[in-house]
């Protein structure tokens, strides 16, 4: 390795700059990855997603290729460090939150389990946006990350895509996805050569009509106007049309006759953004001479759909006229699909095109795929019982649950070396490939030596995070305080505003001499969608409160509030190992699964959460005594919504503590630091609407959180044992388990073999049919 590195750099490692070492290692990783590519036999998965939040790649690839320790040692010998080397790698900006991170975890697990499965997406030049804070407000700039050496390579292949009657060339870039001791798969990303970052003006503004220049600039361009909404359709179609052409081309090369497409390809539609792949495939098959009915059948057998949300506003519905303008070639297909549905049922809520001429993408997905899955047990139940109940009645066999997971390679091995090593010293290395082995840790629940060491590692991680944050934002934290962390997208349903109200409540309590059992460091990491005003108001209130508290010596002894700028995978990797209390406080029924919750528990944090999403299963895995649960149940919440009689003002008027906290938001102190319009508008939003029902859960949250803080302070052994049992109970949440279930129930992917060029022919010839209806009935 040393010789190889030095040969690439043409000098000794000690003489190399980090940039030179980075480039050399990138070359070595690419060579090693290539050596693990395997030919496909049978069905191959294409995971289509608008987002892949993959995070930095170097360290993770070194771990997966089994050369991390060697490289680490070599660098150390030469007075360099891998940690510093990591700093120079830009984080790919190809995703936004949990959905994109899930896609990235899935790619890792597919490769690790030696399953043939590639990602298909778009190459965004500036990602979502880069966040910084100015005057206690979120400020957005383009997240340029494409400068310098790139993991993705230009394949030289292009696909023609017709948008609004004009032809565009989608260029295919590809990057390697390594598995932990597994195969190498690919992430396929499409881009246009004509995209021009020069058209970005102030912040992240740009001309939304210059499609050839703007198409892949940003992920989720502002859709608060018509042009923005159309731009999303443009983007989605570029992705699915180029993707579908690539898939058909690959399958045909392997001997597919298109009638048997489902024997060669499984396509997973990650949320509704790639839904147009359904009509696009039907259209392409039509061009190749396959009649509509058969094409629709083939596509239904090939495709499966994952639902990620029950928030109605997140289920895409496009005006027919927009689609007619941007993708006129698809409309005849979509109308035929709609007619086919209308022959089957006259229920308006099952139609693809409704009476108001809106095209319901999720409805098309459910009708014309063979599997619809939710992402946590509770979420799937809610889909079946309420949100998608009419669909469930029509197609009970299509519905199944696949509880999300996370890759332990990134979220333990890579982000928490000390803990990984310590676990290995206790139970051996088996947990790295078989996460269920973490259970063995439970045997140490009463071993004081182990518990003490565990807490030492946690403290060291809190210090590391604190140092990192100090370098980044000049903020110093107290590692002996309890670190409560809420990091995730800023959304009202996730209820950062509930945490805000708690912190204000504590402010008053401290002022009145009721001190918390331990000093509290409240850490937030969150981006708000640029056009989402209330979310931005919540950020503003948190930043303003942070300043108010900081200025008050009496309170700042006990509370510190920190917002980590530009929350992304890199930040998450620093924050999560440092967390004591994991804040998972969404309104029950609204968080489909959450995956942050899993990362935190795996790193020894205890969850404070509602019975929502995967929190329910986390509680199952660790037992009620090792998690702090509070708040209304999903049933209660759903009933309140159905009756429509939730009145926030009543709670505000009858609960003096709540009222005191809410009034503080636009009180004198906050106004002395913050913006009146923003703070007032947040307060009005809460008192007048509180659409995500923070008020009914306020008291329960305060009580439960204070209990956690007290346990942490007063009973550190109990706390350490809870932390240990959370780690040992996290095995179920490995994305290896999730992917194995997808494969078993939905994909039935082909075996992979090391196949040389000559043998490939024989493999193709022997490609058998799967010979069974692909629909999944197992989980019903
Ligand atoms: C895991 C992850 C998320 C998802 O967090 P949730 O709490 O599940 O919403 C979002 N962003 C980043 C950077 C992540 O790593």
UniProtKB/TrEMBL annotation:
Keywords: Allosteric enzyme, Carbohydrate metabolism, Glycosyltransferase, Pyridoxal phosphate, Transferase
UniProt keyword S-adenosyl-L-methionine, yes or no: no
SUPFAM superfamilies with a match to the protein in the record: UDP-Glycosyltransferase/glycogen phosphorylase
Cellular-component GO terms for this entry: cytoplasm
EC number(s) recorded for this UniProt protein: 2.4.1.1
GO BP: any one term: glycogen catabolic process
UniProt GO molecular function: glycogen phosphorylase activity; pyridoxal phosphate binding
Cofactor(s) needed for function: pyridoxal 5'-phosphate
Pfam name, any one: Phosphorylase
Residue positions, PTM N6-(pyridoxal phosphate)lysine: 599
Recorded superkingdom: Bacteria
Reaction catalysis annotation: [(1->4)-alpha-D-glucosyl](n) + phosphate = [(1->4)-alpha-D-glucosyl](n-1) + alpha-D-glucose 1-phosphate
InterPro entries on file: Glycg_phsphrylas, Glyco_trans_35, Pyridoxal_P_attach_site
Record family assignment: Belongs to the glycogen phosphorylase family.
Purpose of the protein: Phosphorylase is an important allosteric enzyme in carbohydrate metabolism. Enzymes from different sources differ in their regulatory mechanisms and in their natural substrates. However, all known phosphorylases share catalytic and structural properties.
Protein name: Alpha-1,4 glucan phosphorylase
Species of provenance: Schaedlerella arabinosiphila
Gene: glgP
């Amino acid at each position: 390795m040393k010789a190889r590195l030095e040969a690439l750099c043409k000098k000794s490692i000690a003489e190399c700059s980090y940039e030179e070492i980075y480039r050399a290692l990138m070359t070595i990783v690419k060579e090693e990855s290539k050596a693990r590519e395997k030919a496909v036999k049978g069905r191959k998965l294409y995971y289509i997603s608008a987002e892949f939040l993959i995070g930095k790649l170097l360290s993770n690839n070194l771990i997966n290729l089994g050369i991390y320790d060697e490289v680490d040692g070599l660098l150390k010998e030469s007075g360099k460090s891998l940690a510093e080397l990591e700093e120079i790698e830009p984080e790919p900006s190809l995703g936004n939150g949990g959905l994109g991170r899930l896609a990235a975890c899935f790619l890792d697990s597919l490769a690790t389990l030696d399953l043939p499965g590639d990602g298909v997406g778009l190459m965004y030049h500036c990602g979502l946006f880069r966040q910084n804070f100015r005057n206690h407000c979120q400020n957005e700039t383009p997240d340029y990350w494409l400068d310098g050496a790139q993991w993705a390579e230009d394949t030289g292949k292009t696909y023609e895509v017709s948008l609004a009657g004009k032809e565009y060339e989608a260029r295919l870039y590809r990057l390697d996805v390594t598995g932990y001791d597994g195969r190498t798969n690919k992430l396929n990303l499409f881009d246009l050569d004509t995209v021009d970052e020069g058209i970005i003006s102030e912040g992240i503004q740009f001309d939304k009509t210059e499609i050839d220049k703007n198409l892949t600039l940003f992920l989720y361009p502002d859709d608060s106007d018509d042009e923005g909404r159309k731009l999303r359709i443009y983007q989605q179609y570029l992705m699915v049309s180029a993707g579908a052409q690539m898939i058909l081309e690959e399958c045909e090369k392997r001997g597919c006759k298109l009638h048997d497409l489902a024997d060669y390809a499984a396509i997973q539609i990650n949320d509704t953004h790639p839904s147009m792949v359904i009509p696009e495939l039907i259209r392409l098959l039509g061009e190749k001479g396959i009649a509509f009915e058969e094409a629709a059948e083939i596509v239904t057998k090939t495709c499966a759909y994952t639902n990620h949300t029950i928030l109605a506003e997140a289920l895409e519905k496009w005006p027919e006229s927009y689609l007619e303008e941007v993708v006129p070639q698809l409309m005849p297909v979509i109308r035929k699909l709609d007619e086919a549905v209308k022959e089957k049922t006259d229920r308006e809520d099952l139609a693809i095109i409704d009476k108001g001429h809106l095209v319901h993408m999720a409805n098309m997905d459910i009708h014309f795929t063979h599997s619809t899955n939710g992402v946590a047990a509770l979420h799937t139940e809610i889909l079946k019982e309420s949100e998608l109940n009419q669909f469930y009645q029509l197609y009970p066999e299509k519905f199944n649950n696949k509880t999300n997971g996370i890759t332990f390679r990134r979220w333990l091995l890579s982000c928490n070396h000390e803990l990984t090593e310590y676990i290995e010293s206790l139970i051996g290395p088996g947990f790295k490939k078989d996460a269920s082995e973490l259970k063995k840790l439970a045997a140490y629940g009463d071993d004081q030596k182990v518990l003490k060491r565990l807490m030492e590692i946690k403290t060291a991680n809190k210090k590391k995070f604190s140092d990192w944050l100090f370098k980044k934002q000049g903020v110093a934290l107290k590692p002996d305080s309890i670190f409560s962390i809420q990091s995730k997208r800023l959304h009202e349903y996730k209820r950062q505003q509930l945490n805000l109200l708690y912190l204000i409540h504590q402010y008053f309590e401290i002022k009145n001499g009721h001190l918390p059992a331990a000093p509290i460091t409240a850490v937030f990491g969150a981006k708000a969608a640029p056009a989402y005003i209330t979310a931005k108001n919540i950020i503003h209130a948190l930043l303003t409160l942070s300043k108010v508290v900081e200025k008050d010596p009496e309170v700042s002894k006990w509370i510190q509030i920190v917002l980590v700028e530009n929350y992304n995978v890199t930040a998450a990797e620093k924050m999560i190992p440092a967390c004591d209390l994991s804040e998972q406080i969404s309104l029950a029924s609204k968080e489909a699964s959450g995956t942050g919750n899993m990362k935190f528990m795996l790193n020894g944090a205890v969850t404070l959460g509602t019975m929502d999403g995967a929190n329910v299963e986390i509680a199952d895995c660790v037992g009620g005594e090792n998690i702090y649960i509070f708040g209304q149940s999903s049933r209660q919440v759903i009933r309140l919504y159905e009756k429509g009689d939730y009145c926030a003002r009543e709670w505000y008027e009858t609960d003096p503590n709540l009222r005191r906290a809410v009034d503080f938001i636009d009180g004198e102190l906050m106004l002395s630091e913050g913006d009146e319009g923003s703070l007032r508008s947040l307060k009005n939003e809460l008192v007048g609407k509180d659409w995500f029902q923070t008020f009914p859960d306020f008291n329960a949250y305060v009580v439960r959180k204070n209990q956690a803080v007290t346990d942490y302070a007063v009973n550190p052994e109990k706390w350490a044992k809870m932390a240990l049992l959370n780690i040992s109970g996290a095995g179920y949440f490995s994305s290896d388990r999730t992917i194995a279930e997808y494969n078993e129930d939905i994909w039935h992917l082909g075996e992979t073999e090391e196949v040389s060029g000559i043998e490939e022919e024989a493999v193709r010839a022997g490609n058998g049919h799967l010979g069974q209806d692909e629909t999944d009935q197992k989980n019903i």
